[in-house]
């Protein structure tokens, strides 16, 4: 028992709840017994409770009783807790119990499965006497289910490929395909944190972390919904926080975090091809701005290639000052610095 040397025993001594009750007592180094305490009405009944056994690996009290609803005369029950605070006992059911007397129990099972390696004393196969039986019962596998949806309209995505990754041990747990309702199901021996990665044509790859449920004894759990973003072709997206040296094409270090996001996006979606487009404001000549924009777009592509993205998937496009999104000058002809700042931009566009 937790907290020191203690002994569990059954006795019909006076002061109990009736018949044989279960007790706990401290056991001294010299074998002397002290502080004898009845386990109380949660465990004991007015009938007989016998053969207490404590499985330390799972923190489980096991005992036999003929005072509870069961399959036979004596059945084996389990309870968890501490002295004075036991949970309501639960019948082990078949195959631990039978329609006859099942009284003694011992387990070599580990923390994950008390029934992994058990010895039972029962008269289930005898006309007169208790006999020893061994039992090895595997635990039911844990079932985890989830759904893959479109982020745009929450429509289930059928036929999506879902890979379950054990991020701790860096291994693939399962590879699945969603059904007509966008649902996937897989099993594990134990709940543990994993990641579900989903891919389907015309959508960006997405993932969701699947944690462990609060109740580790539960047989199933549902993971958070995994929604995928539809790929929009030929729609340029401004990549924020891309900075170059003034009037040059050299990338500043502050740009790297955003560019690394593009590396991740293209690595997770190996089928897409993209155009990297660069734009300038209207300061300087048209020709100079055109050349500058081309070199800036090339700098971004060079960075992506240096991080492992194939150059065959990337197209360089310089637009110079030809496609402003804000006026470079105010209506009165004065300079518009805020507008020019927005016009100096880098864009990412998925192309067919």
UniProtKB/TrEMBL annotation:
Domain OmpA-like span(s) in chain numbering: 233-352
Keywords: Cell outer membrane, Membrane
InterPro entries in the record: Bact_OuterMem_StrucFunc (IPR050330), CarboxyPept-like_regulatory (IPR008969), OMP_bac (IPR006664), OmpA-like (IPR006665), OmpA-like_sf (IPR036737)
Cross-referenced SUPFAM superfamilies: Carboxypeptidase regulatory domain-like, OmpA-like
PROSITE patterns found in the cross-reference section: OMPA_2 (PS51123)
Biased composition (Basic and acidic residues): 328-352
Annotated localization: Cell outer membrane
GO cellular component terms given for this protein: cell outer membrane
Coiled-coil ranges from the UniProt annotation: none
Full protein name: OmpA-like domain-containing protein
Organism expressing this protein natively: Flaviaesturariibacter flavus
Lineage: Bacteria, Pseudomonadati, Bacteroidota, Chitinophagia, Chitinophagales
